[in-house]
Specification:
two-stranded antiparallel sheet, Rossmann fold, alpha/beta
């Protein structure tokens, strides 16, 4: 009787292949900066003094008036911007290679253009319903649609940040009531961006999270009453990098307020110290 030789069948390894985490170098990138405050305080001029060349998406049409006062600053105004898609197309276009800072003036106006685009392009879930206002979507859905539209802009800007460019969002201001679990609610200055009372789909809060620095630029007004009974006031301008009872703010690099002096670059020297050559 001949012996039968059996060959064992090779079994595949048990379970999925073992994955190993990969570690890499921390690559330098640009900073995400937000500037907000009252109109006319100097936000656009401050942004123009950021490291240049500075590419301006000038939605508020500030530069035609300000350009003569900005001297020899290397400012390049992006042309052909009329709507939301134009902003996105410009950010995805070539030609940004030597630009060090991109300024969006203003994100408040960009939100308005995003709303116009949303109303034209995002249909109501019910066939045949015409949408003319954000409330026409019903049950807060319009705010969610606008929120999702605006997030695409942050994603576009992130590509430039990863490429080493700084991004500056200029925003107008508004007052908001802040719930205070430890005491009475209070009012403070915040960026004028969508912020529904429910807290959901808040562009304002999402932008704050996205930014590395949210800086409030405000007047410090002090009034003194003279012997003749008349009050006289004087005010300086200050950049606040940290949360205060009167303003929303944050910074990954700064802790102390900085006086705002026209054309002074102290803010950028301190904020972008990691980019110093």
């Amino acid at each position: 009787m001949s012996a039968t030789t059996s060959t064992a069948t090779a079994r595949p390894p048990y379970g999925p292949p073992v994955r190993r985490v990969a570690f890499g170098a921390i690559e330098p990138q640009g900073h995400r900066v937000g500037l907000f405050g009252p109109g006319g305080i100097g936000k656009t001029t401050l942004a123009a003094t950021a490291p240049g060349p500075v590419g301006f998406i000038d939605l508020d049409d500030s530069l035609p008036i300000l350009r003569p006062s900005l001297g020899e600053l290397d400012i390049r105004r992006v042309s052909g911007i009329a709507g939301w898609q134009d902003i996105r197309d410009a950010l995805h276009s070539d030609g940004w290679d030597d630009v060090r800072t991109i300024v969006l003036d203003s994100a408040t106006k960009a939100e308005e253009l995003a709303l116009e685009w949303t109303l034209r392009n995002v249909r109501h879930e019910k066939e045949g319903v015409v949408v003319r206002r954000i409330e026409d979507y019903g049950f807060g859905k319009g705010y969610q649609h606008l929120y999702e539209t605006f997030l695409t802009l942050l994603s576009d800007l992130d590509q430039h940040v990863r490429a080493g460019r700084n991004v500056v969002l200029i925003m107008h201001d508004c007052t908001a009531t802040v719930p205070n679990p430890k005491g009475e609610d209070y009012i403070r200055w915040e960026p004028r961006l969508q912020n529904p009372g429910s807290g959901k789909a808040s562009i304002r809060l999402r932008v704050r999270e996205w930014l590395d620095h949210l800086l409030y630029v405000g007047y410090d007004v002090e009034c003194a009453k003279h012997h003749n009974g008349k009050a006289q006031g004087h005010g300086s301008r200050t950049i606040y990098p940290t949360e205060m009872p009167w303003c929303m703010a944050k910074s990954r690099a700064l802790a102390d307020p900085i006086e705002l002096v026209q054309f002074d670059t102290t803010l950028w020297n301190k904020l972008l110290a990691d980019q110093a050559e």
